[in-house]
Specification:
Shape: globular
CATH topology: Glutaconate Coenzyme A-transferase
Number of domains: 1
Distance between the termini: 56 Å
Strand content: 25-35%
Structural class: alpha/beta
Radius of gyration: 18 Å
């Protein structure tokens, strides 16, 4: 990798430098738009005591859920537990610290970090356990709590298509948290379905500018769905 070219050719190179105790921000919502191969590389590395910041923690045996199997995650900052029994078990037993955060607040924590904003006020969570111990201010007669932004040592994201410079486009709802997460890492690693040459993407369609991306890798994806319901005959 040199100059503006962000392409790396192995997942080992993509996640080089990840160490025990680091904070990793992961894009995705449920199993939609998750950087599944980068997650699998984290599992392969065997790093421990991680703080993971993501909407949820995948499902048993897939997505971020695989990192729970060897207890690689120390703290999970997420919006909900989801359909993950191991996540629930570790949380209830106290093996895993879980900091539940409203979805909009979580997204803004990532976006604010990328914009260089250390903290912001939001009305969400005021008067609930979410707001306990946090600074409160009143604006126009309404109470707001102060929330700090989150900067990750690594951010891992999934996009549909990118050029070699890291300019990226997401596909439909797979966009979700990915654009915010991409701005919030000291090192941002993006995996994509297709890499094209600079100039092939319509600039008006680019959702993450390459300035935010440090490493780019093309992968293949399983694209699971979380639940399938079949009507009985």
């Amino acid at each position: 990798m040199s100059g503006f070219d962000k392409v790396v050719h192995s997942y080992e190179e993509a996640m080089q430098g990840l160490e025990d105790g680091m904070t990793v921000i992961a894009g995705g919502f449920g199993l939609c738009g998750i950087p599944e191969n980068l997650i699998n590389q984290i599992k392969k590395l065997g790093v421990k005591d991680l703080t993971i910041v993501s909407n949820n923690c995948g499902v048993d045996g897939f997505g971020l859920g695989v990192l729970l199997e060897d207890k690689q995650i120390k703290t999970m900052i997420a919006s909900y537990v989801g359909e993950n029994k191991l996540f629930e078990q570790q949380m209830l037993s106290g093996e895993l610290e879980v900091i539940l955060t409203p979805q909009g607040t979580l997204a803004e924590k990532m976006r604010a970090a990328g914009a260089g904003i250390p903290a912001f006020y939001t009305a969400t969570g005021y008067g609930t356990p979410i707001g306990e111990g946090k600074e409160v201010r009143e604006f126009n007669g309404r109470k707001y709590i102060l929330e700090e932004s989150i900067k990750g040592d690594f951010a891992i994201v999934k996009a549909w298509k990118a050029d070699r410079y890291g300019n990226a486009i997401y596909r439909h709802t797979a966009q979700n948290f990915n654009p915010m997460a991409a701005t919030a890492g000291k090192i941002t690693v993006m995996e994509v379905e297709e890499i094209v040459e600079p100039g092939e993407l319509d600039p008006t369609q680019v959702q993450t500018p390459g300035i935010y991306v440090d490493r780019l890798i093309q992968g293949t994806f399983e694209k699971r769905i979380e639940k399938r319901t079949v009507r009985s005959a």
